[in-house]
Amino acid sequence: MLKQYPAVVHKESKTDYGVSFPDFPGCVTAGSTPEEAYELAGEALQLHVDGMLEDGEAIPAATALTEVVQGLPKSKALVAFMVPVQLPGRAKRVDVTLDENLLAEVDRAASEHGMSRSGLLAEGARRVLRDLRPTAPAPAGGRSRGAQTTRGKQAKRPKRRAAG
Fold it and tell me: How many angstroms from the chain centroid is the CA of residue 31?
């Protein structure tokens, strides 16, 4: 399910354009241009939300953009905009065919980690899909900022795996 959350662009003298998210304190990113900051905002928010979901945290309701815009003069922010983020939908039962030895490994790993078979397969699918997402080209000058959150270290773009 795709949901939209407000983001706010800030700029102090001698700094990059920073983006923060009122509904996700600690989730920030920055770009050397407003366009770059806008492009990195989606990645930063998705990484932050994915981390919250992995940690079992609840995802907050989105603040209305009009409410955020009304607060812009007080915050000295330049602009507010909406950023899409992918949230999980409801579970759907499906039939899949797997090699019996692979299925035994899945069941063993799920049991060892206190997960269900479905939970382990879903988490594996999420990780593969995350790794397969195309990455944005590095900004001019070759620097890539990634997304900084208070959830831990700087989030990095996933590396592409070599085919074959």
Answer: 17
Task: Indicate the pairing of strand 28-31 with strand 2-11.
Answer: unpaired
* Residue 161 located in a structural domain: no
User: Of the candidates 8, 84, 6, which has an alpha carbon nearest to the alpha carbon of residue 46?
Assistant: 84
Query: Digits of tens for pLDDT over the chain (164 positions)?
Result: 889 999 999 998 888 999 999 999 999 999 999 999 999 999 999 999 999 988 889 999 999 999 999 888 777 788 999 999 988 888 889 999 999 999 999 999 999 999 899 989 988 998 898 788 776 544 444 334 445 555 443 444 333 334 44
CATH, residue 68 = 3.30.160.250
Q: At what angle do helices 117-132 and 100-112 cross, to 10 degrees?
A: 100
Question: What six digits make up the tokens of 58?
Answer: 């609840």
Is 70 part of a structural domain of the chain?
yes
Task: Give how many domains the chain has, as a whole number.
Answer: 1
pTM comes to 0.63
Dist CA 90 CA 42 (whole Å): 23
List the structure tokens of 137. 């080209």
Q: Report the distance separating Cα 70 and Cα 80, nearest Å.
A: 10
